[in-house]
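Data availability (excerpt). The following record was deposited with the supplementary files.
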Amino acid sequence: MNRTPILFLNVLIIAACGLIYELLAGTVASYVLGDSVTQFSLIIGLYLSALGVGAWLSRFIDRELAAKFVDIELAVALAGGLSAPLLFFGFARLEWFQLFLYLVVLVIGTLVGLELPILMRILKEELDFKELISRVLSFDYIGSLIAAVLFPLFLVPRIGLVRTSIVFGILNACVGLYGTYLLAPLIKRRIGPLRIRAAIVLLILAVAFIEAKQLTSLAEQELFADEIIYATSSPYQRIVITRGKSGFHLFLNGNLQFSSADEYRYHEALVHPALASVTAPRHVLILGGGDGLALREVLKYPSVEQVTLVDLDPKMTGLSTAFPALAELNAHSFHDKRVRVVNADAMIWIEKMHDRFDAAIVDFPDPNSFALGKLYTTRFYRLLRERLTPEAAVSVQCTSPLFARRSYWCIIRTMEAAGFTVRPYQTTVPSFGVWGFALARLHPFEPPPRATVPLRFLDPGTLAGMFVMPLDTTSVPVEINRLDNQMLVRYYEEEWKKWS
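Predicted structure:
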C-alpha cells in the first residue's frame, strides 16, 4: 500500500487543525479580555514559538515513531478539541486565566510541532530529501490557508466557537485512529490499546459535540451576571442578550452595547444635538445603530422624509424581528416606510454612494480593533464630509472622555483634521458611566439651545450642560488617527485595559 499520499493529506489536516486552535484561542481571548490586537499578537507569537519547541523536542523521540505519532495526534485532538469550552470556563473561574490561556496555546503548539517532524521521518524512507521537504511544507501551508479562510467565513458564523474546536478535535482523532491502520506495519507495540484510546477520545468529543449548545450556554452564562435570554452568532460578531432586574442588556462580542433601563439617555444625547442643529432635516444618515434605538429618536422629527441606516451585520438589523422586546423598545422603527436599511461596510458604502444628507448619526462600536478603527480615521471623516449638505450636522459616539481620555480626544482631533468644526460634549449613562460624543458641522457654530421634540432626558439646561467638559475630561495631546497608523486603537487598548 502506498502510504505517501495519505500521509501528506495528514500533514494538511494537522496544519489546518493547528491554525484553527490558534485562531480559536485568539478569538476567545479577545472575546473575554478585549484588547484584541495585543491578544492575537501574543497568541500567534507564542504558538509559533511552541511549534519550534515541539520540533526541537522531536529529536528525543528515536523509537516507535508511528505509535508516538498516533499518541500525539490523540493528545492534540483532546487538548485542541476541548480548548474553546475550557477557555470560556477558565475565564469565569480562574484568577490566573491569562496564564491558563497561554498554557493551553503552548501545549497545543508544542504537540503540533512534534507531529510534523515525526511524519517527515516516517516519510523519509519513501522520498528523497528535496522532494520530502518541498511537499511537506507545501501541504503545511495549504492546510493553514484552508483553515484561515474557513474560520471566519464559515466555521464561526455557522457552527460557533465551541463546535468548531470540537469538530477539529474529532478530525484529529480520526487521523489518529486511521493512523493505527495506515501505519500498522510500522507500529511495533500492540495496536489494540492505541485503538481503544482513539475510540475513547472520539467518544468524549462526540458527546461534547452533541452537548455543544449546552456547553456554550453554560460557558457564556459564566461570563454574564444575568440570565441569557437570547444568543446568536453572525459572520461578524456574537450577539447575546441578558435579562436582569432592571431590564435586558445587549452584548456584542462580550461588550455591553446598551441597557434597556437607561439607553434613552445615551440615544437622546447621541441624536438630538445634531438633529436640533439643522432646520427641518429631511434626509438623515445613521451609520451603525443596527438595534434601531438611534433610529427611533430620528423618526421623532416630522420633517424627516428618509432615513438611511447602514449597518454591516444583517443579524443586527434583523434582531428586532428575532427578539420582539427590542422591537417594542425601538418603537418598531424598522417598520417605518421612511427607513431604508443597507447591510454593508460603511467605509466602502460611503465611498461609492453620492447622496447628500442633512444630518448624520455615527454610532459605531468602540474602536477596539483595526477593522473598527478605520471608521474613526481622517479618511473616513473626509468621505463623510463629502456626503453632507452645507448646513448639515454630525454627531459621533466617541467612547468615555473620563476612562479613555486620549481615545476620546484622538477622535475629536481626527475629525478636526478632516475639516470639521467640532464641539465635544459628554453625559452620564448609568450603565457606562461618563460617556463622550462629538457634534460637528462644516463651519463654526454654537450648540443648539434646545431639542425641538419632546424627550425624556434632555431639557435645555441638561443640553447646555453637556457641552461643558469637566477638568478631568479636558483636552490632552494626541496624534491624529490615520489609516496608516491606527493610533486610536492603540490608545483605546492601553486605556481600557486598566478598567477591565
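Summary of structural features: The chain has three domains: 4-213, 223-256, 258-496.
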